[in-house]
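Hi F.,

I've been meaning to write this up properly since the lab meeting, where we talked about keeping a consistent format for the predictions we share between groups. The idea is simple: the sequence comes first, exactly as it goes in, then the structure tokens exactly as they come out, then a line or two of notes. No screenshots and no reformatting. I'm using this chain as the first example so we have something concrete to point to.
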Amino acid sequence: MRLLRRFLCRKDAKFPSKKMIIDFVRNVTTFMYPVLAEMDNPCCSAKKVRNSLCNILSSVRNNLSEPPEVIAGRFMDALNGIKKQVDADAGFIMEGDPAATSVDEVIITYPGFYAILVYRLANRLALLGVPLIPRIMTEYAHSLTGIDIHPKATIDSPFFIDHGTGIVVGETSVIGKRVKLYQGVTIGALSVSKEMSGKKRHPTIEDDVVIYAGTTILGGETVIGHDSIIGGNVWLTSSVPPYSLVYHENVMKIRERNGNKNYKK
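Output, unedited:
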């Protein structure tokens, strides 16, 4: 621990600048969706996005399998595919939320859309073997949206997050197509033991599953079968078959308070 502290405090230690990474996130998202541009962050060119990524990657050059310029090129080549995925996400949110009036509204105002967008960008860098930077990207989105998606999670498209605050999706989660998550959902691990590092610790959510608010699903062997609906405030640590409906049967009791003479049954 002392050696680690000593290294972290060294003046010559090379770490990516959080500010540069946040600026990169803002640049690449406005390049993909100019409607997200703001007065202090106008639309960005592809050249500027690539150059800013190269500068960031240079800070972790010793931990990369390829030169920063090569990885930046691979990332830029992947942007069209990422854009198609995120466009599908936005359309799916628009179709599934009666409160949404347009895809532009989803892109500009929905925190779930923004968290998914940043996750897909960070995930691509993680797949290219880039350390630390993808995690800083998703933590930036987390700070803005309250939605915590690990960049190494596997999430197919289209994907729907509504409201979103308090959602957690762990590192080894696998989520299929047309899955819908509502606020307060946790796709997490049963154990936080360090010995579990590198193993599948988080659930698999198959296609066309809806998970309502406040539900917690845990465990690397837990599989939620396709076309299932998981109701609100459910706690699951075991698999359920396809087409399942999982919910609590709440019992609500109403009684008259003492002294309430105007109460009518």
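Notes:
The first strand starts at residue 148 and ends at 149.
The CA atoms of residues 61 and 68 lie 7 Å apart.

If this format works for you, I'll send the rest the same way.

G.
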